[in-house]
């Protein structure tokens, strides 16, 4: 490469240079009819951009990152810090540089036409040569670059195209996003041809009143425009008309150019079907550029959505309606190909999100693949389109650095020019976590001038003063703000703009606690309109365990249900041998790397449900009311049925008819005939799609709102209660006809009240530990859980370890045997004082055992992980059936999406395979459960009230010791936890911890349960 002017320029260390020879960005889509250059390219990976290619070539798939294709340069993950020490704008001397090369046969019928090379994305500096001649360069790893090859190639002859990609550059300092670092050509490469007279850009603006404006720019490869050209347009059969007033004003203002043509077309659509995320109505628009003789020189097609976005006071309005943004942050990601994603991948992403109640995307933190926006238009999503700017490690230095000013404006403006015609895009974002400076103001000024139809947001501008009115953000868009602070701001009287969190509810591991509380506050507080969960993906790269390298495309099909096949694992930071990394912080999504939904997805689905159910009145006057929580759509697209679950084991369904309810309205729904039963009865309205939707076939479950219809006497802890309530006194005791245990009038076990069916004394060892033929480890007190990511990064796990909760030692204080009862008092030593524990074992008839427990936590043990019982069973008990919340995992502060019912699953299915093993598999609000093997033999446990229960194959220490799922070795039996109190999971890995109401208090905890052999 010696003597090459592109290399001599050293553009990888010149932030002022954003491109050379690159064509302007536009919204004319040339993908259809283009010549695809995707496939196998000759490839060399050089140690630096100044190194000369050698004679030996390998092959590389385009598009695709070379870091996932068996090269010596592997993926690296950092969150904030740069992966090397050089300060901006410098990059390291050791700078992997990929050289891609292939021959292209230029079609002979392209003679006389304008020929353009399109490179979809290259990370991070692209240098283009054709037949050894320099053509141009480009920066921005997430936007396409186009180059005019008309004077370089000859139609009918082959040409050698060389694309050189430099991995590290001055641009890397403003691409410091929370994701894997890759290198390569990550989106498609195309070659297309146009007439010399061509549409240079088309801008489409459709309003919800049916008015349409189309602005066209026209250029000629010859420079000067020919005489007599004109533009026509047709919208689904309706002709557009030339805007004569526009032409007149341009002539009067001398805005008529010899080389840049401008034309404006207009139309008004009667009875227009407006575009919203709920009703994504699209019209087909065709724009034609004609020569003077009427022949067509160029054509551009677009899908038009008629909608308006505005901010009025502190409300963001779509078509005049205040809408909630139930959003998620999304990266372009695939576990095999890194940042290269297909149409099918992206459609599956959006279909998954749609089915779980999401209606908004933030393209974190760069413009996503263009196909994503087509799908968002079609399926219905509100998009915050974000520029490829994040200078996290050197944020404040770069924000005001004039050397980077052109890069800021270039990246923001090119994003807007590319995506401006998508109705799904409702907000422009200037980037992420780059402090705030003059460079942001410059970019915001360009956007506001070019596109006044959409608001601009940037968290860095708004973070210091949510009520400011003179910065670069039209929206207060904080990240991870406590919901209490958001509510206080909305109620302060000082709010000046919408408050929509750009990131909240960090989804790392077992997380997303208090999501329902968060949305309860949003929906009850004017001025709050939602936010974007961080994030969609767990970015685990499929890795071969044998050699530590990415599996690449060869790993297709070698994973499922969130788990990699044997010999493979999901890799996170540090797994590729990199010294500088940020560990499992990359695994923070609501889906696993294979797109398997995590339990939080079901929580979100119910929180975002279009239909809600409430009970009003008392006694025989009670009515059920259906609420339509949508903004624009009625309920006619939905079907429903009633499902009943009774405490006595009954479960049945009956048809339901949804009433006509307008958006935002409510109506009484016919009350089903619910037979009474022993204990409580729960009604669930199973709501499904009534017909095929673009994102779901007929019968797909949309939501399942639930209410308790019958209950025992008032006062029983609700299913979602996470407090450590103790059992009541013996008032109202009666003998249970089924298990012989003494129960109060609310069907809860009463301590110390063995009934007339009491049997022989339970068997215990010398230390008072229960002996039972189905238990391999006796019931013991447990205060520890395998730390979640939130526990670790939030500091709780360190505190619990300092208290010795993971290794508390038991000392027997006394064992008293009286009749059929054994009372055992013990003391568990911790670093800050003892925990007094009492167990009373009472033999009931047929060998059943009632266990009554009390634990007293000293004040020093405030906020422990749990207070409860752990025991282990013999092998062979492989199926769990329970009555409580389910069927998926739930915890005290993440239980709104787990309805009460009767459920059954294998023990292995109860476990949630978070990328870094941790506490998982819990079920909240469990009333009773059984563990059985072949023939139905096993054990049954009945609890004194709704409790947190988990049944897995792993002890807490097994989970704590493992770094990856493949390191876990299942135990032959079951590890069972019954918790009187369990700490919420919160979101403390990045954001607020759980709410105080979900913490485990000090003092006395009481719980009881019966153990029965089946």
Structure, described:
The protein is mainly beta and 1014 residues long. Strands 47, 48, 49, 50, 51, 52, 53, 54, 55, 56, 57 and 58 form a twelve-stranded antiparallel beta sheet that branches. Strand 9 and strand 10 (133-139) form a beta hairpin. The model is unreliable at 713-758 (pLDDT under 50). It contains 15 helices and 58 strands. The termini are far apart.
Share in β-strands: 25-35%
| Average pLDDT score | 94
What is the straight-line distance between the termini?
79 Å
Largest sheet: 12 strands, antiparallel
Give the structural class. Answer: mainly beta
Poorly predicted tracts of residues: 713-758
Rg calc = 32 Å
Residue share in helix: 10-25%
Please report the number of helical segments. 15
Shape designation: globular
Give the number of DSSP strands. 58
InterPro entries: B-gal_small/dom_5, Bact_Beta-galactosidase, Beta-gal/glucu_dom_sf, Gal_mutarotase_sf_dom, Galactose-bd-like_sf, GH, GH-type_carb-bd, Glyco_hydro_2
Biased composition (Basic and acidic residues): 740-749
Enzyme class: hydrolase
Biased composition (Low complexity): 719-732
């Amino acid at each position: 490469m010696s003597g090459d002017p592109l290399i001599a320029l050293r553009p990888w260390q010149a932030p002022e240079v954003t491109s050379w020879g690159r064509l302007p960005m536009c919204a004319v889509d040339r993908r259809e009819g283009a010549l695809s250059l995707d496939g196998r390219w000759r490839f060399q990976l050089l140690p630096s951009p100044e190194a000369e290619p050698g004679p030996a070539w390998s092959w590389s798939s385009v598009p695709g990152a070379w870091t996932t294709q068996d090269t010596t340069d592997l993926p690296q993950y950092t969150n904030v810090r740069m992966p090397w020490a050089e300060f901006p704008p410098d990059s390291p001397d050791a700078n992997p540089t990929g050289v891609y090369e292939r021959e292209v046969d230029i079609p002979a019928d392209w003679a006389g036409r304008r020929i353009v090379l399109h490179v979809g994305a290259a990370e991070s500096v692209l240098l283009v040569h054709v037949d050894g001649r320099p053509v141009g360069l480009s920066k921005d790893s997430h936007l396409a670059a186009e180059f005019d090859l008309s004077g370089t190639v000859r139609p009918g002859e082959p040409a050698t195209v060389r694309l050189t990609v430099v991995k590290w550059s001055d641009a890397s300092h403003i691409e410091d996003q929370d994701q894997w670092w890759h290198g390569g050509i990550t989106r498609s490469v195309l070659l297309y041809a146009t007439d010399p007279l061509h549409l240079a850009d088309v801008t489409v603006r459709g309003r919800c009143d049916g008015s349409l404006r189309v602005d066209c720019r026209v250029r000629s490869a010859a420079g000067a425009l020919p005489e007599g050209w004109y533009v026509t347009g047709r919208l689904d059969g309706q002709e557009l008309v030339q805007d004569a007033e526009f032409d007149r004003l341009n002539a009067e203002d001398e805005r008529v150019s010899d080389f840049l043509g401008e034309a404006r077309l207009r139309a008004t659509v009667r009875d227009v079907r407006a575009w919203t995320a709920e009703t994504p109505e699209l019209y087909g628009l065709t724009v034609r550029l004609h020569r003077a003789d009427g022949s067509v020189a160029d054509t551009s097609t677009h899908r038009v959505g008629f909608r308006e976005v505005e901010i009025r006071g502190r409300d963001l309005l779509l078509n005049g309606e205040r809408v909630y943004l139930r959003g998620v942050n999304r990266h372009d990601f695939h576990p095999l190909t890194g940042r290269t994603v297909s149409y099918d991948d992206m459609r599956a992403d959006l279909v998954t999100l749609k089915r779980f109640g999401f209606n908004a995307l933030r393209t974190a933190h760069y413009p996503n693949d263009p196909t994503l926006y087509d799908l968002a238009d079609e399926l219905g999503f509100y998009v915050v389109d974000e520029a490829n700017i994040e200078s996290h490690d050197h944020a404040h230095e770069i924000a005001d650095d004039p050397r980077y000013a052109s890069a800021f404006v270039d990246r923001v403006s090119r994003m807007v020019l590319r995506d401006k015609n998508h109705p799904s895009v409702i907000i422009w974002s200037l980037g992420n976590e780059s402090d705030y400076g003059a460079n942001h103001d410059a970019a915001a000024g360009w956007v506001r001038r070019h596109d006044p139809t959409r608001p601009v947001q940037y968290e860095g501008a708004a973070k210091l003063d949510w009520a400011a009115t003179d910065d670069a953000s039209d929206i207060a868009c904080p990240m991870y703000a406590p919901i209490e602070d958001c509510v206080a701001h909305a109620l302060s009287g000082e709010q000046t703009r919408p408050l929509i969190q750009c990131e909240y509810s960090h989804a790392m591991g077992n997380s997303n606690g208090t999501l329902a509380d968060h949305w309860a506050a949003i929906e009850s507080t004017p001025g709050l309109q939602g936010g974007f969960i961080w994030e969609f993906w767990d970015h685990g790269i499929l890795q071969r365990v044998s050699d530590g390298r990415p599996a690449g495309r060869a790993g297709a099909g070698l994973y499922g249900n969130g788990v990699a096949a044997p010999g493979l694992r999901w890799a996170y930071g540090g797994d590729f041998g990199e010294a500088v990394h940020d560990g499992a912080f990359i695994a923070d999504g609501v889906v696993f790397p294979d797109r398997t939904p995590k339990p939080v997805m079901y929580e979100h689905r119910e929180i975002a449900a279009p239909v809600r159910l409430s009970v009003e009145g008392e006694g025989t006057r009670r009515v059920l009311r259906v609420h339509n929580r949508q903004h624009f759509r009625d309920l006619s697209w939905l079907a429903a049925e009633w499902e009943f679950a009774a405490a006595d084991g009954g479960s049945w369904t009956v048809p339901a008819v949804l009433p006509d309810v307008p958006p935002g309205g409510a109506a009484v729904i016919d009350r089903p005939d619910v037979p009474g039963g022993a204990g409580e009865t729960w009604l669930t309205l199973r709501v499904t799609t009534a017909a095929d939707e673009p994102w779901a076939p007929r019968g797909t479950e949309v939501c399942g709102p639930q209410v308790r219809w019958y209950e025992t006497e008032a006062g029983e802890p609700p299913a979602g209660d996470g407090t450590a309530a103790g059992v009541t006194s013996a008032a109202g005791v009666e003998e249970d006809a089924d298990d012989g245990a003494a129960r109060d009038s609310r069907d809860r076990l009463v301590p110390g009240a063995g009934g007339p069916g009491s049997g022989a004394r339970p068997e215990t060892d010398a230390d008072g530990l229960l002996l039972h033929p189905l238990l391999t480890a006796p019931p013991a007190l447990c205060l520890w859980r395998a730390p979640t990511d939130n526990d670790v990064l939030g500091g709780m796990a360190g505190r619990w370890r300092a208290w010795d909760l993971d290794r508390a030692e038991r000392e027997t204080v006394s064992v008293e045997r009286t009749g059929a009862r054994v009372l055992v008092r013990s003391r568990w030593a911790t670093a800050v004082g003892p925990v007094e524990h009492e167990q009373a074992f009472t033999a009931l008839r047929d060998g059943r055992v009632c266990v009554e427990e009390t634990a007293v936590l000293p004040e020093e043990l405030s906020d422990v992980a749990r207070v409860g019982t752990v025991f282990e069973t013999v092998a062979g008990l492989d199926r769990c059936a329970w009555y409580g919340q389910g069927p998926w995992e739930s915890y005290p502060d993440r239980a709104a999406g787990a309805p009460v019912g009767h459920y059954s699953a294998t023990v292995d299915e109860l476990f949630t395979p978070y990328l870094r093993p941790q506490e998982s598999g819990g079920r909240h609000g469990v009333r009773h459960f059984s563990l059985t093997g072949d023939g139905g033999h096993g054990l049954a446990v009945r609890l004194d009230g709704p409790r947190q229960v988990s049944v897995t194959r792993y002890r807490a220490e097994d989970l704590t010791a493992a770094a990856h799922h493949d390191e876990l070795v299942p135990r032959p039996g079951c590890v069972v936890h019954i918790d009187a109190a369990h700490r919420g999971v919160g979101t403390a890995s990045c954001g607020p911890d759980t709410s105080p109401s979900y913490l485990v208090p000090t003092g006395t905890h009481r719980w009881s349960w019966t153990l029965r052999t089946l």
